[in-house]
Amino acid sequence: MKIAILGIDGYIGYSLANHLMKRGHSVYGLDSGIRRARVEEIGGDSLTPLPSIYKRGEYLYNTYGDRYLGISYRNIVNCDYNININPDTIVHLAEQPSAPYSMKDSYHAVRSQGDNVLGTLNLLWKMREKFPKAHLVKLGTMGEYGTPNCDIPEGRIPAQCLGNSGAYQCLCSMSGLLFPRTAGSFYHLSKVHDSLNIEFACRNWGLCSTDIMQGVVFGLEGENEQELTRFDYDEYFGTVINRFCVQAIAGIPLTVYGAGGQTRGYLPLKDSLHCLTIAIENPPKEGEYRTFNQFENIYTLNSLADTVVRGAKSLGIDASIEHIENPRNEEEHHYYNPDHQKLFDLGYVPTTDIQGEVTTLISKLLPYKDRIRKAVIYPKTKWR
Amino acid sequence: MKIAILGIDGYIGYSLANHLMKRGHSVYGLDSGIRRARVEEIGGDSLTPLPSIYKRGEYLYNTYGDRYLGISYRNIVNCDYNININPDTIVHLAEQPSAPYSMKDSYHAVRSQGDNVLGTLNLLWKMREKFPKAHLVKLGTMGEYGTPNCDIPEGRIPAQCLGNSGAYQCLCSMSGLLFPRTAGSFYHLSKVHDSLNIEFACRNWGLCSTDIMQGVVFGLEGENEQELTRFDYDEYFGTVINRFCVQAIAGIPLTVYGAGGQTRGYLPLKDSLHCLTIAIENPPKEGEYRTFNQFENIYTLNSLADTVVRGAKSLGIDASIEHIENPRNEEEHHYYNPDHQKLFDLGYVPTTDIQGEVTTLISKLLPYKDRIRKAVIYPKTKWR
Question: 0.95 cut: is pTM over it?
Fold first, then answer.
């Protein structure tokens, strides 16, 4: 298939490009370089050394030949780009991905929602005009749902969940509506706004899309130095398991926010690539808007911290855990039972050995120990 | 009370300012003049002659003295303004209000969502910093809900509507979550995005807000020429009853979009002022986010067209009705049963004589017959 990846220079984008070309697909990429700029803005840096976008393009060209269709360095928000191929699939990963970044102040909140929501809205209009048959694979987040005190279906309210009682008898027909979102940051809300805009574009124009409610990704991929993903561990762009691993290596206590009972879906980066590939290779019908809840399993913060400590110990590193005041506003003990059946039905075989994954990750990161910037890890942005 | 009105120069804003000062409240206004610019952009003009914003300010100053706290001519989207009072209430009416305008092309869609969503987001941050105790009265729309095949509650899913059955047993706890929105244009979606952002700001920061899901407003208010509201009748900014009345006066057939079974909530402008005043004078608790469904009653397009024809006939005008291809993408026969009890509980006495209202409106508009621009009424923007 011919696939355009928006955000090809990012954490998932570059690994996905390599993964898809290894499978024989053709890939065209777009990126504005803004992820690098944002990490630099907050004082961070990828733990893995990062070749320039052009060097990455050179590697892809030398490695995959004709399958590599080029990278265009363009502003994605304002739709200041052409997609110079007729793609079967457009994978949209080009968004500001950090919740705390969106909660810093009004400027960062407005940039997060402006860039994400308007960038996707522009893309939808471009698809309507030029690629109405292409499949939009859009990266959302499990965080769109928040942590309601009920089961979470995949996208829409299922028929079997509703009874038929009382004054609102007709509400039994609420099935099929989008399951209500209760997001916990302006970043997460930007993904909710995206979901609603995309659903409307499918309903109104007949576009088709897979909206991925992804859990928290961790890990490092790449068969050689030139294929390595970027790896962030700062308070803004470092996801929690990645951050814990770096703290263990740096000899800093793992900082668990609050009580640590917060439960979320998680998946290794390689599972994310596997799942995205399944979505790409199994497109929805014309006009269909579908939601995948994409994660391997759910874990509490406390259990993840323990997993990282055990992994470190097996490598001879003595790591400790510190509970700190929670900078976020979130439930620290709560019900959490999200459905995630659709990807399994399409062949997703999850990596279930999370302990093994984490231990491997720590060992892969060890060579970069000297590059760790300790000052950027501890959280400074507070929700309230 | 001290009240700041954002969008004081608009259709509702200017009437509301007069109404509130007549009741003894103090009013400070902000406006960027963008509504005038947008109507000019699409070739329209208010049917009623419009004094400049400064003339309006002069009138308010001369009429209400100390209760008039000034008007500031400022960009509202970028939050390029100070609110030079310590308001008890901030009424936010400063948004792009037209669905077809948002569906013209990508530029207008992005402007609509950018201006509305980011303007409100900026306001929320400003309130957090400067006016955390003020009550935000925000104008949303009944169109946020769309036309689901079930009853529509006021904002959240009520407890009594959910049974307890089947695999998703826990979904009986879905009560309290926001009722899912299924909006029908990028404009309507901008209001949904606003609602979600505001709900989060209340939940996270303890702001309080009344989010008004308003029906379609019609009518003309003002006790003299200087108090008169603007009155739009073009395809973009003219709401349907107002447009029908102008078509009747102009001797053009009333253009019903499609079959005409489309059902929505409607209310006269004076009822809107009445309801907004109730919301202002009965603020929610600190940290509370509440939703009012604000309309007098529900009507089909066909019944409204008949009402206008009857009203015109009683004034000696022979009006006709034409069904034209629906430029929008909407159900033309559908279930519609939205709740709207909260405002009644707080004392809203609705104007139930819609025929009388419409007939009076036509007679008030007759003196402006020569100002009608016939070319701007027929719909040119299509949803698909």
Answer: yes
